[in-house]
Amino acid sequence: MVKPISLSGIKPTGTPHLGNYLGMIKPALKMVQQYQAIYFIADYHALTTIRDGKELRRLSYEIAATLLALGLDPEEVVFFRQSDVPELFELTWILNCYTPKGLLNRAHAYKAALDANIEAGRDPDAGINIGLYTYPTLMAADILLYGSHVVPVGQDQRQHVEITRDIAQAFNNNYGEIFVLPDAVIQEDVASIPGIDGRKMSKSYDNVIPIFAPSNLLRKTIMRIVTDSSRPEDPKDPEKDNVFNIYRYFAPADEVADVRERYLHGGLAYSEIKQNLYEILNAYFAEPRERYNAYLADQTRLEEILMIGAERARIIGSKIMRKVRRAVGVRYERELEARPQ
Ligand code: ADP
Ligand code: TRP
Question: Do 66 and 212 form a contact (C-beta atoms < 8 A)?
Answer without folding.
Answer: yes
